[in-house]
Amino acid sequence: TDEDTFTNVFCENSKKLINVHLFALAAKYYSLPSLGVCTPLEDVLEALRVDNQGTTGIKTDEFMNNKKSHEVQVMSELVDNIANYCGVKQVIDIGSGKGYLSSFLSMQYNLKVYGIDSSNTNTNGAHERNRKLKKHWRAYQSRGRANLESQRLEKANDRPVESEMKCKAISVKPLNNDSSLQSQDQMTMQDLVSSCGSTEIATAETSKQTEVDLVARTQCDESKLSEEVLAILNVLPADAVEVFSSSQCNCDELCEEEKVQRKMASLKAKASKSSESNLYFPLTSYITAETELSDIVTDLEDCMMVGLHTCGDLAANTLRIFTAKPEIKAVCSVGCCYHLLSEQFENQEEHPEAWGFPMCQYLKDKGWCCGRNARMSACLALERVAVGQMLPTESLFYRAVLQVIIEEIYGVTKSDGHVGKTFSKSSSFIDYVRKSLKKLELDDSELPDSCIMDYYEKYKHRMNELEAFNMLKVVLAPCIEVLILLDRLCYLKEQDNIAWSGLVKLFDPVKSPRCYSVIALKKQPCF
């Protein structure tokens, strides 16, 4: 059996690792790709009756962070297709951050998006980015329409007359053919059947058909333009776009009548914009499992919930809110920051909110606990290390020796303080230690440089040992992530109101290590 194959990884008596090769094989065997529990993204899109062959990629290497562009491109397309399948136009983006995903869903896909983040700074930043996006969106679309108009005039006379129109029936595969996911009711897919007979088109209708083709091309080109707009968001400073009008007159010099006229025109413009479906509203609120969304989103309607790298317990709470609220028809959640998860069986402390782990009843009955060290390991990026992006061994070594100093000299064994990115701002190990002690509010006035360097020299020969240890943690990381993600999937499988749920790999793990999404769709009520 497979278990027998891996019995010689650890010594039975000492429990120490004795076979690194088998350890690596076992870790690979229990990773998500090997277990075969994920539903391919292509299968999900196909089941949602989506033709994603014609989509064009965002120009990630010009202005915007390559990682964020990749994430927004892939996830926004999937979210739009799920929303269309569920027949909803409202999206709740939990932990929306700076609003990259929310803005793009709104502008590109005409969805009404509420982005909720606990940080007021993020919300304000999202407002500013959205303002700049709207201005540049209109500019790009205007330029695109002007170009297309000239193409319209050039091509209208050259286009041959179509003799007939044909409509093809679209065959649909079930969302999931995997027998392992058949414990829940299989989703019913409605066949999209379009029956159109051959129709002779008169010469007089040629220009009308040409118009239809050009409109389709216009929409395609506007889609490309929208991708260029997304790339601009991250490069513009906050004051790059100024509010301006067609008139350059000083407002103080305007007569009262003209001021009133301009105010009325402005109000009409705002009213017109508010009636559009593609709106984005950044909001500030702290989300828990008990959060009542209708208190935050006053016009809450049938919607879907999304989360792109929701931190710690927020990913678990997103799923709990989804299962509890009938208005939420679907969820697409990508979690991160596993080390910040709260664990029910870790330290038995009182916890005022729902625990982040475990979620499913099976692991609760087992009293399962990962522990902080394991959760920290789950955050490591095996795929990046595999392509040569090595671990920051020196900074990890600095941090390890610092901990020894704090324990032996200051007697501190546990602290809620953080040294953050002190390593990148330090010129030497001595500088690193002193800056870190200051951050931790520990007095270093009695600590000479020679004492600090003594600790460095004492442990310097163990740096390779530390690197090897961290490499083993990287190899084990996917196994711990599997446990956390399967816990969330099993929680959804335990619910009676879920039609389908699955794990889907959305992103390239080298670009975005936390690449797995938990997706679920509610059962539709029978009338």
Query: For this structure, what is the CATH homologous superfamily of the domain at 20-142 and 278-388 and 476-522?
Result: Vaccinia Virus protein VP39
Distance between the termini: 50 Å
The average pLDDT value, as a whole number, equals 76
Known CATH architecture of the domain at 20-142 and 278-388 and 476-522: 3-Layer(aba) Sandwich
The helix count comes to: 18
Low-confidence stretches: 52-63, 160-212, 221-254, 266-277
Backbone shape: globular
Proportion of beta-strand residues: 5-15%
Structural class computed from helices and strand pairing: alpha/beta
Question: Would you list the SSEs in sequence order as H and E?
Answer: HHHHHEHEHHHEHEHEHHHHHHHEE
For this structure, the CATH topology of the domain at 20-142 and 278-388 and 476-522 is Rossmann fold
